[in-house]
Amino acid sequence: MNKQESLSKVLYIDLAKRHFYKEIRDDLFGKYIGGAGVALQLLKEECPQGIDPYSPENPIIFSVGHLTGLFPMASKTVAMFKSPHTGNLGESHAGGRSAISIRMAGYGAIVIKGASVRPCYVAIHGDKVYFRDASTLWGMKSSITAGRFIRAKESSSGFRTIMRIGPAGEKMLPFSCVTTETFRHFGRLGLGAVFGSKKLKAVVVSGKRSLPVSEMKEYSKLYDLIFKTATESPLMKKYHEIGTPMNVLALNMSNGLPTRNLKEGTFESAEKISGEKIAEGYLGKRLACAHCPVACIHIAALREPYHDEPFFYKTTMIGYDYELLYAVGSMLGGSDVDGLLKILDRIEAYGLDCMSTGVVLAWMTEAMERGIISEKETNGLRLNWGDYPSYIEAVKMMVEQQNDFYKALSRGVDYVSSVYGGQDFALSFGGNEMPGYHTGPAAHAGWLAGARHSHLDNAGYAVDKKLMLNKELLPDELADAIIAEEIWRQILSSLVICFFAREIYTPQIVLEAMKISGLELTEEKLGRVAEEIYAEKYRFKIREGFSFNKLRIPKRIFETPSSAGLIDENYLHSLLNSIEQKINARL
Fold it and tell me: Considering only the top CATH level, what class is 439-586?
Protein backbone atom coordinates (compact mmCIF):
# COMPACT_ATOMS: atom_id res chain seq x y z
CA MET A 1 0.00 0.00 0.00
CA ASN A 2 1.48 3.38 -0.93
CA LYS A 3 1.28 6.39 1.38
CA GLN A 4 -1.42 8.14 -0.69
CA GLU A 5 -3.66 5.06 -0.58
CA SER A 6 -3.08 4.69 3.15
CA LEU A 7 -4.24 8.25 3.83
CA SER A 8 -7.15 8.02 1.40
CA LYS A 9 -8.71 5.01 3.10
CA VAL A 10 -11.90 5.90 4.99
CA LEU A 11 -13.34 3.54 7.58
CA TYR A 12 -17.15 3.62 7.84
CA ILE A 13 -18.72 2.23 11.02
CA ASP A 14 -22.45 1.64 11.55
CA LEU A 15 -23.22 1.27 15.27
CA ALA A 16 -26.81 0.18 14.72
CA LYS A 17 -25.92 -2.69 12.39
CA ARG A 18 -22.57 -3.47 14.05
CA HIS A 19 -21.10 -3.31 10.59
CA PHE A 20 -18.08 -1.63 9.01
CA TYR A 21 -16.57 -1.20 5.57
CA LYS A 22 -13.74 0.75 3.91
CA GLU A 23 -13.48 2.94 0.85
CA ILE A 24 -10.57 4.61 -0.92
CA ARG A 25 -11.45 8.30 -1.28
CA ASP A 26 -8.67 9.76 -3.42
CA ASP A 27 -11.27 12.24 -4.68
CA LEU A 28 -11.44 13.84 -1.23
CA PHE A 29 -7.85 13.59 -0.03
CA GLY A 30 -6.48 14.76 -3.35
CA LYS A 31 -8.69 17.85 -3.50
CA TYR A 32 -9.27 18.80 0.14
CA ILE A 33 -5.92 17.61 1.61
CA GLY A 34 -7.31 15.97 4.77
CA GLY A 35 -8.35 17.10 8.25
CA ALA A 36 -10.98 19.83 8.20
CA GLY A 37 -11.32 19.89 4.41
CA VAL A 38 -12.05 16.18 4.06
CA ALA A 39 -14.07 15.94 7.27
CA LEU A 40 -16.40 18.69 6.05
CA GLN A 41 -17.07 16.88 2.78
CA LEU A 42 -17.77 13.63 4.62
CA LEU A 43 -20.10 15.52 6.97
CA LYS A 44 -22.01 16.94 4.01
CA GLU A 45 -22.34 13.45 2.52
CA GLU A 46 -23.52 11.78 5.71
CA CYS A 47 -25.47 14.47 7.62
CA PRO A 48 -29.04 15.08 6.35
CA GLN A 49 -30.11 18.71 6.20
CA GLY A 50 -31.87 19.96 9.32
CA ILE A 51 -31.19 16.79 11.32
CA ASP A 52 -31.51 16.86 15.11
CA PRO A 53 -27.92 16.75 16.50
CA TYR A 54 -28.99 13.93 18.84
CA SER A 55 -30.37 11.85 15.98
CA PRO A 56 -28.62 8.59 15.08
CA GLU A 57 -28.20 10.11 11.61
CA ASN A 58 -25.81 12.77 12.93
CA PRO A 59 -22.40 11.34 11.98
CA ILE A 60 -19.09 11.64 13.79
CA ILE A 61 -16.14 12.24 11.48
CA PHE A 62 -12.48 11.98 12.50
CA SER A 63 -9.83 13.00 9.96
CA VAL A 64 -6.08 13.56 9.75
CA GLY A 65 -3.81 15.01 7.08
CA HIS A 66 -0.95 14.36 4.66
CA LEU A 67 1.76 15.49 7.10
CA THR A 68 0.48 13.40 10.01
CA GLY A 69 3.13 10.90 11.05
CA LEU A 70 5.75 12.51 8.82
CA PHE A 71 6.54 15.95 10.26
CA PRO A 72 6.65 17.49 13.74
CA MET A 73 3.52 19.11 15.18
CA ALA A 74 1.21 17.77 12.45
CA SER A 75 -0.36 16.00 15.39
CA LYS A 76 -4.01 17.05 15.64
CA THR A 77 -7.18 15.17 14.74
CA VAL A 78 -10.21 17.05 13.46
CA ALA A 79 -13.66 15.92 14.56
CA MET A 80 -16.72 17.06 12.56
CA PHE A 81 -20.38 16.66 13.53
CA LYS A 82 -23.51 18.71 13.89
CA SER A 83 -23.17 20.49 17.21
CA PRO A 84 -25.86 19.94 19.85
CA HIS A 85 -24.63 23.13 21.53
CA THR A 86 -25.11 25.52 18.61
CA GLY A 87 -27.30 23.44 16.31
CA ASN A 88 -24.83 24.03 13.51
CA LEU A 89 -21.35 23.09 12.31
CA GLY A 90 -19.41 21.26 14.98
CA GLU A 91 -15.65 21.21 14.54
CA SER A 92 -13.25 20.30 17.32
CA HIS A 93 -9.53 19.55 17.31
CA ALA A 94 -7.56 17.35 19.72
CA GLY A 95 -3.91 16.51 20.16
CA GLY A 96 -2.42 13.61 22.08
CA ARG A 97 -1.89 10.39 20.14
CA SER A 98 -5.18 10.28 18.22
CA ALA A 99 -3.90 11.57 14.86
CA ILE A 100 -0.84 9.33 14.73
CA SER A 101 -2.91 6.34 15.87
CA ILE A 102 -5.46 6.83 13.10
CA ARG A 103 -2.71 7.17 10.49
CA MET A 104 -0.81 4.16 11.83
CA ALA A 105 -4.03 2.12 11.73
CA GLY A 106 -4.12 2.84 7.99
CA TYR A 107 -6.84 5.49 7.73
CA GLY A 108 -7.17 9.11 6.78
CA ALA A 109 -10.68 9.36 8.16
CA ILE A 110 -13.22 7.45 10.26
CA VAL A 111 -16.97 7.92 9.87
CA ILE A 112 -19.25 6.70 12.67
CA LYS A 113 -22.97 6.46 11.90
CA GLY A 114 -26.11 5.18 13.62
CA ALA A 115 -26.69 4.49 17.31
CA SER A 116 -26.21 1.41 19.43
CA VAL A 117 -29.13 -0.08 21.36
CA ARG A 118 -26.97 -0.54 24.45
CA PRO A 119 -23.72 1.11 25.62
CA CYS A 120 -20.73 0.07 23.55
CA TYR A 121 -17.27 1.09 22.57
CA VAL A 122 -15.51 0.52 19.27
CA ALA A 123 -11.99 -0.90 19.11
CA ILE A 124 -10.12 -0.36 15.83
CA HIS A 125 -6.88 -2.30 15.66
CA GLY A 126 -5.50 -1.80 12.18
CA ASP A 127 -7.74 -3.62 9.71
CA LYS A 128 -9.85 -5.19 12.47
CA VAL A 129 -12.85 -3.51 14.07
CA TYR A 130 -14.56 -4.80 17.21
CA PHE A 131 -17.83 -3.75 18.84
CA ARG A 132 -17.43 -4.15 22.61
CA ASP A 133 -20.14 -4.07 25.25
CA ALA A 134 -19.72 -1.05 27.57
CA SER A 135 -22.66 -1.58 29.92
CA THR A 136 -20.35 -1.88 32.93
CA LEU A 137 -18.57 1.35 31.98
CA TRP A 138 -21.77 3.36 31.48
CA GLY A 139 -22.52 5.33 34.63
CA MET A 140 -18.96 5.38 35.98
CA LYS A 141 -18.36 8.61 37.87
CA SER A 142 -15.18 9.46 35.99
CA SER A 143 -14.03 9.30 32.39
CA ILE A 144 -10.54 8.63 33.76
CA THR A 145 -11.66 5.38 35.40
CA ALA A 146 -13.32 4.22 32.18
CA GLY A 147 -10.14 4.99 30.28
CA ARG A 148 -8.06 2.88 32.65
CA PHE A 149 -10.41 -0.07 32.25
CA ILE A 150 -10.30 0.09 28.46
CA ARG A 151 -6.52 0.51 28.46
CA ALA A 152 -6.12 -2.69 30.45
CA LYS A 153 -8.51 -4.66 28.24
CA GLU A 154 -7.39 -3.52 24.80
CA SER A 155 -3.86 -4.84 24.46
CA SER A 156 -2.25 -3.64 21.25
CA SER A 157 1.11 -2.67 19.83
CA GLY A 158 2.15 0.54 18.13
CA PHE A 159 0.37 3.85 18.64
CA ARG A 160 -2.92 3.73 20.51
CA THR A 161 -5.51 6.33 21.44
CA ILE A 162 -8.58 6.03 23.70
CA MET A 163 -11.23 8.66 23.05
CA ARG A 164 -14.00 8.47 25.67
CA ILE A 165 -16.77 10.37 27.40
CA GLY A 166 -17.72 10.90 31.03
CA PRO A 167 -21.07 11.22 32.83
CA ALA A 168 -21.83 14.56 31.12
CA GLY A 169 -21.58 12.97 27.70
CA GLU A 170 -23.72 10.01 28.76
CA LYS A 171 -26.40 12.46 29.91
CA MET A 172 -26.00 14.33 26.59
CA LEU A 173 -25.16 17.70 28.11
CA PRO A 174 -24.65 19.84 24.99
CA PHE A 175 -21.22 21.14 26.00
CA SER A 176 -19.78 17.81 27.10
CA CYS A 177 -16.42 16.86 25.62
CA VAL A 178 -14.48 13.80 24.50
CA THR A 179 -11.26 13.10 26.42
CA THR A 180 -8.25 11.51 24.78
CA GLU A 181 -5.05 10.50 26.57
CA THR A 182 -6.50 11.97 29.81
CA PHE A 183 -5.16 15.50 29.30
CA ARG A 184 -6.26 16.28 25.72
CA HIS A 185 -9.80 16.89 24.52
CA PHE A 186 -12.20 17.43 21.69
CA GLY A 187 -13.36 20.17 23.99
CA ARG A 188 -15.78 22.51 22.32
CA LEU A 189 -19.25 22.25 20.78
CA GLY A 190 -20.47 19.04 22.37
CA LEU A 191 -18.92 16.02 20.67
CA GLY A 192 -19.34 14.18 23.99
CA ALA A 193 -23.11 14.61 23.77
CA VAL A 194 -23.11 13.13 20.24
CA PHE A 195 -21.17 10.14 21.58
CA GLY A 196 -23.76 9.83 24.36
CA SER A 197 -26.69 9.97 21.94
CA LYS A 198 -25.18 6.98 20.12
CA LYS A 199 -24.56 5.05 23.37
CA LEU A 200 -20.90 5.23 22.35
CA LYS A 201 -18.66 5.27 25.41
CA ALA A 202 -15.33 5.28 23.62
CA VAL A 203 -13.37 4.75 20.43
CA VAL A 204 -10.03 2.96 20.62
CA VAL A 205 -7.66 3.16 17.65
CA SER A 206 -4.27 1.48 17.35
CA GLY A 207 -1.89 0.77 14.52
CA LYS A 208 1.67 -0.02 13.64
CA ARG A 209 3.03 0.64 10.17
CA SER A 210 5.66 2.62 8.34
CA LEU A 211 5.12 5.52 5.97
CA PRO A 212 7.41 5.30 2.93
CA VAL A 213 9.12 8.48 1.74
CA SER A 214 10.42 8.60 -1.84
CA GLU A 215 12.83 11.51 -1.43
CA MET A 216 14.58 10.62 1.83
CA LYS A 217 17.34 13.22 1.52
CA GLU A 218 14.89 16.09 1.00
CA TYR A 219 12.62 14.69 3.70
CA SER A 220 15.42 14.55 6.28
CA LYS A 221 16.56 18.06 5.43
CA LEU A 222 13.09 19.58 5.77
CA TYR A 223 12.30 17.55 8.90
CA ASP A 224 15.50 18.78 10.56
CA LEU A 225 14.70 22.38 9.61
CA ILE A 226 11.21 22.21 11.12
CA PHE A 227 12.46 20.39 14.22
CA LYS A 228 15.30 22.85 14.78
CA THR A 229 13.04 25.86 14.29
CA ALA A 230 10.52 24.43 16.75
CA THR A 231 13.05 23.60 19.46
CA GLU A 232 15.10 26.80 19.14
CA SER A 233 12.25 29.29 18.73
CA PRO A 234 11.97 31.61 21.78
CA LEU A 235 8.17 31.34 21.61
CA MET A 236 8.26 27.54 21.55
CA LYS A 237 10.70 27.55 24.48
CA LYS A 238 8.14 29.55 26.46
CA TYR A 239 5.45 27.05 25.51
CA HIS A 240 7.72 24.33 26.87
CA GLU A 241 8.75 26.12 30.05
CA ILE A 242 5.45 27.73 31.05
CA GLY A 243 2.90 26.51 28.50
CA THR A 244 -0.13 28.45 27.34
CA PRO A 245 -0.66 29.79 30.92
CA MET A 246 2.03 32.34 30.03
CA ASN A 247 -0.92 34.29 28.58
CA VAL A 248 -2.39 35.05 32.02
CA LEU A 249 0.00 37.88 32.92
CA ALA A 250 0.34 39.18 29.36
CA LEU A 251 -3.42 39.52 28.88
CA ASN A 252 -3.87 40.92 32.37
CA MET A 253 -1.32 43.66 31.66
CA SER A 254 -3.17 44.61 28.46
CA ASN A 255 -6.63 44.69 30.08
CA GLY A 256 -7.63 41.61 28.08
CA LEU A 257 -8.12 39.00 30.85
CA PRO A 258 -11.89 38.47 31.38
CA THR A 259 -12.57 38.69 35.11
CA ARG A 260 -15.73 38.02 37.14
CA ASN A 261 -17.94 37.49 34.10
CA LEU A 262 -16.12 40.27 32.23
CA LYS A 263 -17.08 42.94 34.72
CA GLU A 264 -13.37 43.75 34.53
CA GLY A 265 -10.54 43.11 32.08
CA THR A 266 -7.88 42.79 34.74
CA PHE A 267 -7.65 40.48 37.75
CA GLU A 268 -5.98 41.76 40.90
CA SER A 269 -4.82 38.23 41.73
CA ALA A 270 -3.63 37.30 38.25
CA GLU A 271 -0.10 36.60 39.47
CA LYS A 272 -1.38 33.89 41.85
CA ILE A 273 -2.91 31.90 38.96
CA SER A 274 -0.20 32.71 36.41
CA GLY A 275 1.66 29.97 34.60
CA GLU A 276 4.87 31.09 36.24
CA LYS A 277 3.47 30.85 39.78
CA ILE A 278 1.69 27.52 39.28
CA ALA A 279 4.81 26.01 37.70
CA GLU A 280 6.83 27.18 40.68
CA GLY A 281 4.55 25.56 43.26
CA TYR A 282 2.68 22.74 41.52
CA LEU A 283 4.28 21.60 38.25
CA GLY A 284 4.41 17.80 38.26
CA LYS A 285 5.40 17.06 34.68
CA ARG A 286 5.28 18.21 31.09
CA LEU A 287 3.75 16.15 28.29
CA ALA A 288 3.86 16.35 24.51
CA CYS A 289 1.46 15.30 21.80
CA ALA A 290 2.81 12.50 19.62
CA HIS A 291 5.48 13.68 17.18
CA CYS A 292 5.89 17.07 18.91
CA PRO A 293 9.21 18.22 20.38
CA VAL A 294 7.75 21.16 22.32
CA ALA A 295 5.84 19.51 25.21
CA CYS A 296 3.53 22.44 26.01
CA ILE A 297 1.12 20.34 28.12
CA HIS A 298 1.66 21.23 31.79
CA ILE A 299 0.37 18.99 34.55
CA ALA A 300 0.02 20.10 38.17
CA ALA A 301 0.59 17.74 41.08
CA LEU A 302 -1.99 18.44 43.79
CA ARG A 303 -1.09 16.86 47.15
CA GLU A 304 -3.91 16.41 49.65
CA PRO A 305 -4.03 14.55 52.96
CA TYR A 306 -6.43 11.61 53.24
CA HIS A 307 -9.42 12.44 55.44
CA ASP A 308 -8.92 9.51 57.81
CA GLU A 309 -5.11 9.41 57.57
CA PRO A 310 -3.85 13.01 57.94
CA PHE A 311 -0.18 11.96 57.78
CA PHE A 312 -0.63 10.27 54.40
CA TYR A 313 -1.07 12.18 51.17
CA LYS A 314 -2.55 11.44 47.78
CA THR A 315 -1.30 13.15 44.63
CA THR A 316 -3.65 14.02 41.78
CA MET A 317 -2.28 15.02 38.38
CA ILE A 318 -4.32 17.83 36.78
CA GLY A 319 -3.81 19.62 33.45
CA TYR A 320 -3.93 23.41 33.39
CA ASP A 321 -3.91 25.22 30.03
CA TYR A 322 -4.53 28.96 29.77
CA GLU A 323 -8.18 28.62 28.78
CA LEU A 324 -8.80 26.52 31.91
CA LEU A 325 -7.13 29.06 34.21
CA TYR A 326 -9.21 31.82 32.65
CA ALA A 327 -12.49 29.90 32.79
CA VAL A 328 -12.38 28.80 36.43
CA GLY A 329 -9.79 31.31 37.61
CA SER A 330 -10.19 34.98 36.67
CA MET A 331 -13.67 34.48 35.18
CA LEU A 332 -14.86 33.23 38.59
CA GLY A 333 -12.71 35.67 40.57
CA GLY A 334 -10.81 32.75 42.09
CA SER A 335 -7.13 32.73 43.07
CA ASP A 336 -6.93 29.77 45.48
CA VAL A 337 -4.84 27.42 43.34
CA ASP A 338 -5.79 24.33 45.36
CA GLY A 339 -9.48 25.11 44.86
CA LEU A 340 -8.93 25.91 41.19
CA LEU A 341 -7.20 22.58 40.58
CA LYS A 342 -9.91 20.69 42.46
CA ILE A 343 -12.68 22.08 40.26
CA LEU A 344 -10.59 21.35 37.16
CA ASP A 345 -10.29 17.76 38.35
CA ARG A 346 -14.08 17.45 38.78
CA ILE A 347 -14.78 19.01 35.38
CA GLU A 348 -12.30 16.55 33.86
CA ALA A 349 -13.94 13.59 35.58
CA TYR A 350 -17.43 14.62 34.39
CA GLY A 351 -16.20 15.21 30.84
CA LEU A 352 -17.32 18.81 30.39
CA ASP A 353 -15.99 21.62 28.23
CA CYS A 354 -14.21 23.69 30.87
CA MET A 355 -14.55 27.00 29.02
CA SER A 356 -18.32 26.70 28.75
CA THR A 357 -18.55 25.47 32.36
CA GLY A 358 -16.63 28.46 33.68
CA VAL A 359 -18.72 30.98 31.72
CA VAL A 360 -21.94 29.28 32.86
CA LEU A 361 -20.85 29.50 36.51
CA ALA A 362 -19.81 33.15 36.08
CA TRP A 363 -23.25 34.02 34.67
CA MET A 364 -24.88 32.13 37.53
CA THR A 365 -22.85 34.05 40.12
CA GLU A 366 -23.73 37.44 38.67
CA ALA A 367 -27.36 36.45 38.22
CA MET A 368 -27.49 35.70 41.97
CA GLU A 369 -25.81 39.02 42.74
CA ARG A 370 -28.48 40.83 40.74
CA GLY A 371 -31.39 38.85 42.22
CA ILE A 372 -32.34 37.32 38.87
CA ILE A 373 -32.08 33.89 40.46
CA SER A 374 -32.11 32.94 44.12
CA GLU A 375 -31.42 29.98 46.36
CA LYS A 376 -34.89 28.74 45.40
CA GLU A 377 -33.61 27.96 41.90
CA THR A 378 -30.19 26.73 43.06
CA ASN A 379 -31.39 24.20 45.66
CA GLY A 380 -30.14 26.36 48.51
CA LEU A 381 -26.69 26.92 47.03
CA ARG A 382 -25.25 30.43 47.35
CA LEU A 383 -22.48 31.37 44.92
CA ASN A 384 -19.85 34.02 45.61
CA TRP A 385 -16.86 34.94 43.49
CA GLY A 386 -13.94 32.62 44.18
CA ASP A 387 -15.95 30.18 46.33
CA TYR A 388 -14.66 26.92 44.87
CA PRO A 389 -16.51 24.45 47.16
CA SER A 390 -19.81 26.02 46.07
CA TYR A 391 -18.78 26.01 42.41
CA ILE A 392 -17.87 22.32 42.62
CA GLU A 393 -21.30 21.60 44.11
CA ALA A 394 -23.01 23.63 41.37
CA VAL A 395 -21.22 21.60 38.67
CA LYS A 396 -22.33 18.38 40.38
CA MET A 397 -25.97 19.55 40.47
CA MET A 398 -25.78 20.59 36.84
CA VAL A 399 -24.46 17.22 35.68
CA GLU A 400 -27.04 15.42 37.81
CA GLN A 401 -29.84 17.68 36.41
CA GLN A 402 -31.25 18.18 39.89
CA ASN A 403 -34.05 20.58 38.93
CA ASP A 404 -35.35 22.68 36.05
CA PHE A 405 -32.85 25.46 36.70
CA TYR A 406 -29.85 23.13 36.52
CA LYS A 407 -31.30 21.48 33.42
CA ALA A 408 -31.48 24.92 31.79
CA LEU A 409 -27.99 25.78 33.04
CA SER A 410 -26.59 22.63 31.46
CA ARG A 411 -27.71 23.88 28.04
CA GLY A 412 -25.38 26.90 28.25
CA VAL A 413 -25.66 30.61 28.99
CA ASP A 414 -27.52 31.42 25.78
CA TYR A 415 -30.37 29.14 26.78
CA VAL A 416 -30.47 29.67 30.56
CA SER A 417 -30.45 33.47 30.13
CA SER A 418 -33.29 33.26 27.61
CA VAL A 419 -35.37 31.52 30.30
CA TYR A 420 -34.33 33.39 33.46
CA GLY A 421 -33.03 36.73 32.09
CA GLY A 422 -29.62 38.34 32.21
CA GLN A 423 -28.84 38.09 28.50
CA ASP A 424 -26.89 41.35 28.55
CA PHE A 425 -24.17 39.62 30.57
CA ALA A 426 -24.60 36.11 29.13
CA LEU A 427 -21.28 35.76 27.32
CA SER A 428 -22.14 33.53 24.39
CA PHE A 429 -21.22 34.02 20.74
CA GLY A 430 -23.18 32.11 18.13
CA GLY A 431 -24.30 29.80 20.94
CA ASN A 432 -20.77 29.03 22.15
CA GLU A 433 -19.41 30.45 25.40
CA MET A 434 -16.69 33.08 25.41
CA PRO A 435 -13.01 32.11 25.38
CA GLY A 436 -10.46 34.03 27.45
CA TYR A 437 -9.55 37.01 25.25
CA HIS A 438 -11.12 40.46 25.69
CA THR A 439 -8.64 42.08 23.34
CA GLY A 440 -10.90 44.16 21.10
CA PRO A 441 -13.52 44.05 18.32
CA ALA A 442 -11.67 41.55 16.10
CA ALA A 443 -11.78 38.84 18.79
CA HIS A 444 -15.50 39.24 19.38
CA ALA A 445 -16.33 39.56 15.67
CA GLY A 446 -14.25 36.45 15.02
CA TRP A 447 -16.22 34.37 17.52
CA LEU A 448 -19.53 35.68 16.20
CA ALA A 449 -18.74 35.25 12.51
CA GLY A 450 -16.14 32.45 12.57
CA ALA A 451 -16.95 29.12 11.01
CA ARG A 452 -17.22 27.39 14.38
CA HIS A 453 -17.51 30.37 16.76
CA SER A 454 -14.11 29.58 18.25
CA HIS A 455 -11.09 31.71 19.13
CA LEU A 456 -9.05 29.29 17.01
CA ASP A 457 -10.93 30.13 13.80
CA ASN A 458 -9.11 33.34 13.00
CA ALA A 459 -7.13 34.39 16.09
CA GLY A 460 -9.04 37.66 16.28
CA TYR A 461 -7.18 38.37 19.52
CA ALA A 462 -3.95 38.58 17.48
CA VAL A 463 -5.62 40.62 14.74
CA ASP A 464 -6.68 43.11 17.44
CA LYS A 465 -3.01 44.09 17.76
CA LYS A 466 -3.32 45.79 14.40
CA LEU A 467 -6.12 47.93 15.80
CA MET A 468 -4.06 48.74 18.90
CA LEU A 469 -1.23 49.93 16.68
CA ASN A 470 -3.49 51.75 14.24
CA LYS A 471 -6.56 53.27 15.85
CA GLU A 472 -7.74 54.54 12.46
CA LEU A 473 -8.08 51.05 10.95
CA LEU A 474 -11.38 50.89 9.08
CA PRO A 475 -13.86 48.04 9.72
CA ASP A 476 -13.40 46.88 6.13
CA GLU A 477 -9.62 46.59 6.61
CA LEU A 478 -10.02 44.70 9.88
CA ALA A 479 -12.53 42.36 8.21
CA ASP A 480 -9.95 41.56 5.53
CA ALA A 481 -7.38 40.67 8.18
CA ILE A 482 -9.81 38.41 10.09
CA ILE A 483 -10.93 36.55 6.96
CA ALA A 484 -7.41 36.19 5.56
CA GLU A 485 -6.21 34.56 8.79
CA GLU A 486 -9.17 32.20 8.92
CA ILE A 487 -8.74 31.18 5.28
CA TRP A 488 -5.08 30.28 5.82
CA ARG A 489 -6.01 28.31 8.93
CA GLN A 490 -8.16 26.06 6.75
CA ILE A 491 -4.90 24.72 5.30
CA LEU A 492 -3.32 24.27 8.72
CA SER A 493 -6.41 22.49 10.05
CA SER A 494 -6.59 20.27 6.98
CA LEU A 495 -3.00 19.08 7.27
CA VAL A 496 -3.65 19.00 10.57
CA ILE A 497 -0.92 21.24 12.02
CA CYS A 498 -1.01 22.56 15.57
CA PHE A 499 -1.78 26.27 15.41
CA PHE A 500 1.10 26.95 17.81
CA ALA A 501 3.36 26.02 14.87
CA ARG A 502 1.66 28.39 12.43
CA GLU A 503 4.71 30.69 12.24
CA ILE A 504 6.93 27.70 11.43
CA TYR A 505 4.68 26.22 8.75
CA THR A 506 4.78 29.10 6.29
CA PRO A 507 3.15 28.59 2.87
CA GLN A 508 6.55 27.70 1.38
CA ILE A 509 7.30 25.11 4.10
CA VAL A 510 3.79 23.68 3.71
CA LEU A 511 4.22 23.26 -0.04
CA GLU A 512 7.59 21.56 0.37
CA ALA A 513 6.26 19.21 3.06
CA MET A 514 3.18 18.34 0.99
CA LYS A 515 5.33 17.54 -2.03
CA ILE A 516 7.40 15.12 0.03
CA SER A 517 4.20 13.55 1.39
CA GLY A 518 3.00 12.84 -2.15
CA LEU A 519 0.72 15.79 -2.94
CA GLU A 520 2.25 18.52 -5.11
CA LEU A 521 0.46 21.88 -5.33
CA THR A 522 1.36 25.41 -6.34
CA GLU A 523 0.90 28.31 -3.96
CA GLU A 524 -1.97 29.56 -6.14
CA LYS A 525 -3.69 26.15 -6.00
CA LEU A 526 -3.18 25.98 -2.25
CA GLY A 527 -4.86 29.37 -1.89
CA ARG A 528 -7.84 28.20 -3.96
CA VAL A 529 -8.19 25.09 -1.78
CA ALA A 530 -8.19 27.25 1.36
CA GLU A 531 -10.82 29.58 -0.12
CA GLU A 532 -13.02 26.66 -1.14
CA ILE A 533 -12.91 24.96 2.28
CA TYR A 534 -13.74 28.29 3.92
CA ALA A 535 -16.71 28.87 1.61
CA GLU A 536 -17.90 25.28 2.01
CA LYS A 537 -18.08 25.69 5.78
CA TYR A 538 -20.37 28.68 5.41
CA ARG A 539 -22.52 26.90 2.86
CA PHE A 540 -23.03 24.14 5.40
CA LYS A 541 -23.73 26.65 8.17
CA ILE A 542 -26.28 28.53 6.08
CA ARG A 543 -27.87 25.22 5.07
CA GLU A 544 -28.34 24.49 8.76
CA GLY A 545 -29.87 27.87 9.57
CA PHE A 546 -26.99 30.24 10.31
CA SER A 547 -27.68 33.90 9.70
CA PHE A 548 -25.85 37.06 10.73
CA ASN A 549 -29.26 38.53 11.56
CA LYS A 550 -29.74 35.90 14.28
CA LEU A 551 -26.51 36.67 16.12
CA ARG A 552 -26.91 38.00 19.65
CA ILE A 553 -24.16 40.34 20.87
CA PRO A 554 -23.81 40.50 24.68
CA LYS A 555 -23.91 44.14 25.81
CA ARG A 556 -21.28 43.43 28.46
CA ILE A 557 -18.50 43.49 25.86
CA PHE A 558 -19.21 47.20 25.19
CA GLU A 559 -19.17 48.10 28.90
CA THR A 560 -15.75 46.78 29.93
CA PRO A 561 -12.58 48.31 28.41
CA SER A 562 -10.58 45.80 26.35
CA SER A 563 -6.91 45.69 25.32
CA ALA A 564 -7.90 48.02 22.47
CA GLY A 565 -9.98 50.26 24.75
CA LEU A 566 -13.76 50.46 24.91
CA ILE A 567 -15.33 48.62 22.00
CA ASP A 568 -17.60 50.87 20.00
CA GLU A 569 -20.91 49.14 19.26
CA ASN A 570 -21.34 50.85 15.90
CA TYR A 571 -17.81 49.89 14.89
CA LEU A 572 -18.45 46.23 15.74
CA HIS A 573 -21.70 46.20 13.76
CA SER A 574 -19.90 47.75 10.78
CA LEU A 575 -17.17 45.14 11.11
CA LEU A 576 -19.70 42.30 11.13
CA ASN A 577 -21.52 43.79 8.13
CA SER A 578 -18.25 43.93 6.24
CA ILE A 579 -17.41 40.30 7.13
CA GLU A 580 -20.88 39.22 6.00
CA GLN A 581 -20.50 40.97 2.65
CA LYS A 582 -17.08 39.44 2.05
CA ILE A 583 -18.33 35.95 2.94
CA ASN A 584 -21.38 36.31 0.68
CA ALA A 585 -19.10 37.33 -2.18
CA ARG A 586 -17.30 34.00 -1.81
CA LEU A 587 -20.43 31.84 -1.86
Answer: mainly alpha
